[in-house]
Input
Amino acid sequence: MVMEIISDITALRARLKSEQSIGFVPTMGNLHEGHLSLVTIAQQHARCTVVSLFVNRLQFSPHEDFDRYPRTLQNDFSLLEKAGIDMIFLPDEKIIYPVPQTFQLLLPTLADTLEGTFRPGFFRGVTTIVLKLFNIVQPHIAVFGKKDYQQLHLVRDMVEQLNLPITILAGETIRSENGLAFSSRNGYLTPAEHTEASHLYQSLNQIKHAIAAGERNLKLLEETAKQQLNQRNWRVDYLSVMQRNTLLPATPQDTELVILAAAWLGTTRLIDNLEVTLTSLPD
Output
């Protein structure tokens, strides 16, 4: 089957109308192995796979990198064609936002924590575009990466609370050999920064191992990791151990945890996370 590239909503809906099983992977393009792993999951669960390529202005603050965000369409097309996807949805801004987007969701307080603390309005922009794309594509399943852990959590809650007939699947974070999570923004890193960037994942791993070994002073673990990164010339926005199901601060009694971090290395902001499961609490 030849991969189709469709930019018009009416044409996309007409093409998908007869499909009984649609898998969807929304992206902002500049694709890498992490995105392709999500495509593979979609292909395993649906007969027709759609990938959207759209850099969503609504989730960028005025001082952020919307204009310089990498746009690599020809390479994206090549990667998706090799992956054997059925369809690319490639709208421009006037298609997605023909009029100012004055209707937006009222989000839960979780959206104002962690990423939301440092990127006000970010999740409002994310949930708005995701909901619009869901309405356009009308998929049966949609796949999101665990690297954007809080985003995945909020999208799942949105689908559940708005009764959308979509199953949300999660893809594991894909990493390079040094542990750095694949991200479109990794392209901003200099070669030296790319090597240094692995220390963010190493910090999460140190906390994970300490918790597994019985350390329950979570605040101490967080602060120690922050200090170590700051000493290496990182600027840490947050590094927090949270309850996995709620993304509220974890307590010493919790066994299902996730460590979430966002930090600046030079002019590049990186995020990462690591899940921790304790089979039992230490005595």
Summary: The chain has a mean pLDDT of 96. The longest strand covers residues 234-243. The chain has ten helices and nine strands.
